[in-house]
Amino acid sequence: MAESNKTVVFQAGNEEYAFPILYVVSIEKMEGMTTIPHMPDYVTGITKVRGELIPVIDLEKVLYNRDIQVEEKTRLIVIETAELSIGALVRDAKEILEIPAENLKQPGLIAYQKTSFITGVANFDKRMIMLIDPQRLIQTLEGIKEIKEYMQNQKQELHN
Q1: Number of folded domains that form the chain
Q2: pLDDT value for 11
Q3: Rounded to the nearest 5°, which phi and psi values hold at 107?
Q4: DSSP alpha helix (H) spans, 15-160
Q5: CATH number for the domain harbouring residue 71
Q6: How confident is the model over 100-124, as pLDDT tens digits?
Q7: Are 104 and 5 in contact (CB under 8 A)?
């Protein structure tokens, strides 16, 4: 049997992207976010999901350098990596899709540091879906170290 990859497909800009399902905790409607001053421009604020405070990043800002327009379809994909849990604000969370290994190609752009988080392109007849590694995505974001420290301080204050 061919190896496959289960992913959560979402829309950012006019393109389709996917996170490996292993990293996805949940998909939420965007509700009740608190903005925090002096954060990097891709951080829209923090929100509470299942009792945990997590930073929210605007994936349109990260990928296309423009603010997302929050609409009815806008979703928050909660991702957990070894370093940090984050909420990724996306235009639409579309589906859970199993990508057969034979449909997955390595992008030629992988050497480019700013897009090193795009680890593959799923090539289907009528669509292409770019696979994003959340761990790498977080590592490429400028100012993420400060956000991790801020979130750790918030957690410590809650437990004191």
Answers
A1: 1
A2: 92
A3: -75, 145
A4: 59-64, 134-140, 144-159
A5: 2.40.50.180
A6: 888 888 766 555 656 778 888 888 8
A7: yes
Tell me: pLDDT of 4 over 60: no
Which residue from 113, 156, 137, 102 is spatially nearest to 18, judged by alpha carbons?
137
Q: How many residues does the structure list for the chain? A: 160
User: Which residue matches tokens 């800009």?
Assistant: 13
User: String of b and e for 39-72 (b: at least 16 CB within 10 Å)?
Assistant: beebbbbbbebeeeebbbbbbbbbbeeeebeeee
Distance (Å, whole) CA 43 – CA 55: 7
Q: What pLDDT, on a 0 to 100 scale, did the predictor assign at position 158?
A: 63
What mean pLDDT, rounded, does the chain reach? 85
Burial class (CB in 10 A: 0-12, 13-18, 19+), 148: middle
pTM listed for this prediction: 0.86
